[in-house]
């Protein structure tokens, strides 16, 4: 069976006018169409949504969104206000790594057929606190969880193996201390 | 009319009953299959609502818009699904851009057909998301009254805007078993916060105002919506500031007042733009700093401090970063500000500005054919400046803004942000329904008028005494002006060859028509039109073909680069904005 490597973890070259690593959290009404309203605000202003996590809040009337975005840094405060202005958005905050905890989870499927290579790989997984969640004669799926840069580092190390695909959840964020997310 | 037992209402009847309870007088619209239950409810529910059948859905939206701008109350539109809803897009966008309260009810396919390309199905909810303040696709019959109440609340509070309610046919025709008085539930919308003004921002604003030597007040639509006319007048008198207004702010401060310098911006008065260039403090009350008033943003008031009174937080710093932002309702904010403002003496500054008024007055040539400016100047005189003026978009609009001074709010109805051709005439119909005793004049060009002229039928049927003033130069004059100035006079797509005989056209609809060809006839013919009140009258004024609007600030250029008269050298193409 021939395998195609479908994912590249290469990052595009950094551009001065692009910010990344910005994380927004929104508390919104849990009903159809809300995500459309939010996405249109970003698309219109040439922002890319790099990651997006949506889940129901503790009160099912609301949902929680975490967005990782990149775009012209000058426009970000206005974007936050535009999102906040939506009737369906209860609040929208930007969070920095200093004031919040950010986590994501990645699943990495790698071709490995036992022997020394597999042992090596398992050592990497152990170093990053990951776990093997599927294992067979020819491949394995590894789960890595943590801050985005930790997940990036783990995948970078695994790049010397034959990665078939990676799936990442995208960032979830929670404000530290008494601050509201 | 059949009397209804509340126990036996269907969704559409519950909806129309709610609209009636909310005080709706007029619904403008066009019927169709998916809207049948709502149209039937207009007949079966006892209410004071009068339905106005238009000739096109776009006309319905502009009529609702004109009604809303003349009264401050939301205009209501009722259309069917698919193309019916689609035809409202331009009107909804126009209302959104100019902060006009509007409710659009659209029929929709039955819920189980949504997403299946059923007959006249269009995702109008998705389509209108970027051009509404909020919208709904109602899936539960019992939600209809609550949604209608929420829509009215959203449309009319805070910064007003249009709200669309899409109603699938099975939702409107199913039995209603809910609560007609269900409370609204909008946890993400708190317009009452606009009444609570941050006192430190007011103190900072007062400090800047009391220190200013050359202040200018910029009055926008927001000041009008807030009803801040008296506070604005007091602020102007106490600070001895010249007052300029935006296109949509015309009338919130009387333009015939000695402190008024008229409209600013691309085709504003030279003295308003010069006042802006030379002031040391700009006090913006309720304008969003539209690109057509600021020109090149980094040069706008570069030497001056800027205070921005703004109800929409998302507008603060969007175009211009102010030194002080006062977020909230303009009337509440000014009321709380005024006790902190000292009486100023800016006689020198006012005299300086008056010098500009004398040096650069608005004018036009009296020879060489009939000019639009003369027609507007004459109708201003004949109506004592007291008519409600609606306009289309283009040269006639700018000249109307320059020559028809407004001394009161809600009497100038023009599509500003969206720049919608075809707006003026249907908007006049809405305004005339709202204000039956006022003189309503629709000023249009021959281009824009032809986009919605089918509404002559609507005006005739209801015997509305609207004066339709078609300033006819057989051209899309403003575009032609740009081609002349910036594209070596290469005309492209601007010649309206083949215009109909507008008077005969009016007569075909049963509307009176009057031609004006000679400058000497203008007053007599306009008076004849003003004296005719049996129904609409169309005045076709054959004007000079190739006149240009000045002053002019090329799009995106700095205010100081204003052209007061035709340039003698070739102009570079504007690139900063449109």
What do you see in this structure?
- The complex is a heterodimer of chains A (181) and B (578).
- Chain A is an alpha+beta fold.
- Chain A has two domains: 19-95, ACT domain (Alpha-Beta Plaits, 2-Layer Sandwich); 101-174, ACT-like. Chain A, domain 2 (Alpha-Beta Plaits, 2-Layer Sandwich).
- Chain A has four helices and nine strands, in the order E-H-E-E-H-E-E-H-E-E-H-E-E.
- Chain A is elongated.
- Chain A starts with 18 loop residues before the first strand and ends in a 6-residue tail after the last strand.
- Chain B is 36% helix and 15% strand.
- Chain B has 23 helices and 18 strands.
- Chain B has a six-stranded parallel β-sheet, sandwiched between helices. In chain B, strands 9-8-7-10-11-12 form a six-stranded parallel β-sheet, sandwiched between helices. In chain B, strands 14-13-15-16-18-17 form a six-stranded parallel β-sheet, with helices on both faces.
- Chain A binds chain B through residues 28-29, 32-33, 36-37, 40, 44, 61-62, 77-78, 81-82, 84-91, and chain B through 125-126, 129-130, 133-134, 137, 154, 186-189, 312-314, 316-318.
Q: Determine and state the CATH class of the largest domain in chain B.
A: Alpha Beta
CATH architecture of the largest domain in chain B: 3-Layer(aba) Sandwich
How much helix, percentage-wise, in residues of chain A? 10-25%
Which outline of chain B best applies? globular
Query: Structural class per helix/strand content of chain A?
Result: alpha+beta
State the low-pLDDT regions of chain B, or none: none
CATH topology category name of the largest domain in chain B: Rossmann fold
For the biggest sheet of chain A, the summary is: 5 strands, antiparallel
Number of domains of chain B: 3
């Amino acid at each position: 069976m021939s395998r195609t490597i479908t994912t590249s973890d290469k990052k595009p070259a950094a551009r001065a006018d692009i910010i990344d690593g910005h994380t927004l959290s929104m508390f919104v009404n849990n009903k159809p169409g809300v995500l459309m309203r939010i996405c249109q605000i970003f698309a219109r202003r040439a922002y890319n949504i790099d990651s997006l996590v949506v889940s129901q809040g503790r009160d099912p009337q609301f949902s929680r969104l975490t967005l990782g975005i990149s775009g012209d840094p000058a426009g970000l405060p206005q974007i936050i206000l535009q999102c906040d202005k939506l009737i369906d958005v209860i609040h929208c905050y930007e969070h920095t790594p200093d004031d919040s905890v950010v986590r994501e989870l990645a699943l990495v499927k790698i071709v490995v057929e036992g022997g020394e290579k597999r042992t090596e790989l398992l050592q990497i997984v152990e170093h990053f606190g990951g776990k093997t969640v599927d294992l067979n004669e020819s491949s394995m799926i590894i789960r890595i969880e943590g801050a985005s840069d930790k997940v990036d580092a783990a995948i970078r190390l695994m790049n010397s193996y034959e990665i078939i695909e990676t799936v990442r959840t995208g960032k979830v964020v929670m404000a530290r201390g008494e601050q509201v997310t | 009319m059949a009397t209804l037992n509340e126990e036996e209402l269907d969704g559409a009847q519950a909806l129309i009953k709610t609209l009636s309870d909310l005080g709706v007088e007029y619904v403008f619209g066009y019927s169709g299959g998916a809207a049948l239950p709502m149209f039937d409810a207009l007949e079966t529910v006892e209410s004071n609502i009068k339905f106005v059948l238009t000739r096109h859905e776009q006309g319905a939206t502009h009529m609702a818009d004109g009604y809303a701008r003349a009264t401050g109350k939301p205009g209501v539109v009722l259309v069917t699904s698919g193309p019916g809803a689609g035809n409202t897009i331009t009107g909804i966008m126009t209302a959104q851009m100019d902060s006009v309260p509007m409710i659009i009810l659209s029929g929709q396919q039955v819920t189980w057909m949504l997403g299946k390309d059923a007959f006249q199905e269009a995702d109008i909810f998705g389509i209108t998301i970027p051009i509404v303040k909020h919208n709904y696709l109602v899936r539960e019959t019992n939600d209809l009254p609550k949604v209608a109440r929420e829509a009215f609340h959203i449309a009319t509070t805070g910064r007003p805007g249009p709200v669309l309610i899409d109603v699938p046919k099975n939702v409107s025709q199913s039995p209603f078993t809910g609560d007609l008085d269900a409370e609204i539930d909008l946890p993400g919308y708190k317009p009452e916060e606009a009444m609570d003004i941050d006192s430190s921002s007011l103190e900072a604003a007062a400090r800047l105002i009391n220190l200013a030597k050359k202040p200018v007040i910029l009055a926008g639509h927001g000041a009008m919506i807030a009803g801040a006319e008296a506070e604005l007048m007091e602020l102007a008198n106490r600070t001895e500031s010249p007052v300029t207004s935006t296109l949509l702010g015309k009338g919130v401060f009387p333009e015939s007042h000695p402190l008024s310098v008229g409209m600013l911006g691309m085709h504003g008065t030279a003295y308003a733009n010069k006042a802006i260039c030379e002031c040391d403090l700009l006090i913006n009350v309720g304008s969003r700093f539209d690109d057509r008033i600021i020109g090149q943003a980094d040069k706008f008031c570069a030497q001056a401090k800027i205070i921005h009174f703004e109800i929409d937080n998302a507008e603060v710093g969007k175009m211009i970063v102010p030194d002080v932002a006062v977020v909230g309702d303009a009337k509440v904010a000014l009321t709380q500000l005024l006790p902190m403002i000292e009486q100023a003496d800016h006689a020198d500054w006012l005299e300086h500005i008056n010098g500009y008024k004398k040096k650069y007055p608005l004018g036009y040539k009296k020879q060489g054919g009939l000019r639009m400016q003369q027609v507007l100047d004459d109708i201003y005189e004949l109506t004592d400046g007291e008519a409600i003026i609606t306009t289309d978009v283009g040269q006639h609009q700018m000249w109307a803004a320059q020559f028809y001074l407004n001394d009161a709010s809600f009497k100038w109805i023009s599509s500003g942000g969206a720049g919608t051709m075809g707006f003026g005439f249907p908007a006049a119909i809405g305004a005339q329904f709202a204000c039956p005793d006022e003189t309503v004049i629709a000023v249009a060009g021959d281009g824009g008028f032809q986009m919605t002229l089918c509404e002559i039928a609507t005006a005739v049927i209801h015997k509305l005494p609207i004066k339709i003033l078609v300033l006819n130069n057989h051209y899309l004059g403003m575009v032609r002006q740009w081609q002349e100035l910036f594209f070596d006079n290469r005309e492209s797509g601007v010649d309206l060859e083949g215009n109909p005989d507008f008077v005969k056209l009016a007569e075909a609809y049963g509307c009176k028509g009057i031609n004006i060809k000679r400058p000497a006839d203008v007053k007599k013919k306009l008076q004849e039109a003003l004296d005719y009140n049996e129904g609409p009258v169309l005045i076709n004024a054959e004007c000079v073909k190739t006149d240009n609007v000045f002053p002019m600030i090329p799009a995106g250029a700095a205010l100081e680069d204003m052209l007061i008269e035709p340039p003698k050298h070739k102009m570079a193409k504007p690139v900063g904005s449109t």
